[in-house]
Amino acid sequence: MKTKQIYYEDGYLKELQAKVLSITPARNLNNIILDQTIFYPEGGGQPCDRGMIGFAKVEYVEKSDKLVRLTVEVSTAYTVP
């Protein structure tokens, strides 16, 4: 699995359609992996982007190897069918 990092191609993009690759519950939040993202992860002393995925509020973004993990509120998150 790999997340395409669209934020490197267009840092001003506000919307993007992406496929959900996985959702993992974590306490009161869910971790979501997408096939591509415009959310910039935390790093180098810079805070991560925040925003919305549908009705899910993105609280935290981190990069690990080739994946970008978005942490969203459980109350507004969804599950993969």
UniProtKB/TrEMBL annotation:
Gene3D superfamilies: 2.40.30.130. It comes from the Bacteria. GO terms for biological process: alanyl-tRNA aminoacylation. SUPFAM superfamilies: Translation proteins. GO terms for molecular function: alanine-tRNA ligase activity; aminoacyl-tRNA deacylase activity; ATP binding; metal ion binding. InterPro entries: Ala-tRNA-synth_IIc_N (IPR018164), Alanyl-tRNA_Editing_Enzymes (IPR051335), Transl_B-barrel_sf (IPR009000). Residues 28-74 form the Alanyl-tRNA synthetase class IIc N-terminal domain. Keywords: Metal-binding, Zinc. This is Alanyl-tRNA synthetase class IIc N-terminal domain-containing protein. It comes from candidate division WWE3 bacterium RIFCSPLOWO2_01_FULL_39_13.
